[in-house]
Write a structure and sequence with these properties.
This protein is an alpha/beta fold. The chain has two domains: about 5-230, Spore Coat Polysaccharide Biosynthesis Protein SpsA, Chain A (Alpha-Beta Complex); about 275-360, no CATH class. About 45% of the residues lie in helices and about 20% in strands.
Amino acid sequence: MTVRTEIRGGRAGVGTRRGLPTVDVVVPCYNYAHFLRRCVASVLEQPGVDVRVLVVDDRSSDDTPLVVRELSADPRVHGRRHEVNRGHIATYNEGLLEWAEADCTVLLSADDLLAPGALARAATVLRDNPDVGLVYGRGVYYTDHDRLPRTLNVPLGTSVWSGREWIEGRCRSGHNVISSPEVVVRTSVQQRVGGYRPDLPHAGDLEMWLRFAAVSDVAHVRGRPAAYYRVHENSMLRTRFNTALVDLEQRRDVFARFFADHPGLPDAALMHTAAKRALAKEALWRVCRAYDRDDLAEHPHEEMTEFALSTYSGARRLPEHAALERRKRLGAEFCHRTQIFAGSQVVKRAENWLWWQSWKLRGV
């Protein structure tokens, strides 16, 4: 049984302001009291929606309980505090599945921020597209709350993909294109597909989005940021080598779990093979870069190579595998000293840059 204390604002229930879509924003918090006020303010300042903030304090040891009590003076803010630490997955699922009851739901970490107008834009897309279960926008990475990055405002627009199209895109790239705070979901679909998987702690969000796409369409709102995602020293965006291998393994597990659970999807076997191919290509290229940097001493190159070979049966026929064999023959020191493969590095960087620009504009 969950043991917790609750602090409730003055409004019971949701949807009391007629004509506005209702949104529950679940804010899990563990020792992030110093970020919480700014996070909650970014939600309460959203125009055009009837919003409720649900703060789930996972037994923080800092001033989080005091901050939640202070914030709950606003009737739109409610708080729960666990008597024992339950971990992030259980905390997410409690907010999303047990507490949220509005038309739409957002999961927003206490150190992230919503961008102005993000909720109204997403709620409009959900209203106008009944088959869409998940809407996301652009997530902007930042490190300092007081120095948010400047972004270009391009014309607003919306792309809608069938769920199968969106799944196929994720399989071709092998990558997630969503950080998490930029997502607004239809609450009824969230409760239909269930919560986060405890056995996928590093890539469970990708598996969640795939589940949404298996039962609904997916939309992307371009032209304005949807949320600001804080990058810190312990985040996946800042870690290297062994964590990269864990991330690849988790993504492989995500696709395996998803397709095992959805064998009836059209072309499921072909899409799964495409995902394994993409992950093998990424792993082999990472080893190539370790040779180019003479970084083998710190890089799990043997494990990365084995990951590629065991993940995709055709890995030895990939161009990345041929590129790795050339580097092995020459040796890491020679590759680094001569930069003989600098041209391929430039090409790969250009490809990555083009993908990055496409992601910023199109969300895929």
